[in-house]
Amino acid sequence: MSRDWNASVTVAAVIERGGRFLLVEEETPAGLQLNQPAGHLEPGESLINAVIRETLEETAHTFEPRALIGCYMSRGKSSRDQGDTTYIRFAFTGDLGSLDAGRQLDTGIVRTVWMSIDELRACRERHRSPLLMACVEDYIAGKRFALDVLYTHPTAVATEVAP
């Protein structure tokens, strides 16, 4: 295996209300693009805590994950260093909570927007990730897995690594 291989674990929230999906419009090296509230898993963080944090940072809304939609893989250029990266995305659905109107959105996020499935399908060239539609289509198809399918060993969220 090549030592140059790079993988990045990400999470995404697929949030639907009244047939419309919550997205973020964000500045990227390719210009303004659309994505679900999503981001990278950070050290010492569970997947569930990561999607709660990312949704809050990118939308200023609380989020309560209720189900895992699926796990996805794609390959592309890293927005951090433009290196070749394999992305492993865990997509969740759940309940969107209260808005913290005074909270500033994460760096690069221009605004949130609600879009129908037809609007999403019509603007694929604006999608930040090819996984955006895969996650939404699986959500529409009713794919749901209980959150207990995900196991986080205590060492993954510990502040120090045990000997």
TrEMBL record:
Pfam families per the UniProt record, alphabetical: NUDIX
The protein's required cofactors: Mg(2+)
UniProt KW keywords: Hydrolase, Magnesium
One GO MF term attached to the UniProt entry: ribonucleoside triphosphate phosphatase activity
Catalytic class of the enzyme: hydrolase
Record EC number: 3.6.1.-
CDD domains hit by this protein: NUDIX_Hydrolase
InterPro entries: NUDIX_hydrolase-like_dom_sf, NUDIX_hydrolase_dom, NudJ
Record domain Nudix hydrolase: where: 4-138
PROSITE patterns, per the entry: NUDIX
Subunit field text: Monomer.
Record family assignment: Belongs to the Nudix hydrolase family. NudJ subfamily.
PANTHER family xrefs: NUDIX HYDROLASE 23, PHOSPHATASE NUDJ
Protein name per the record: Phosphatase NudJ
Organism (species): Cupriavidus plantarum
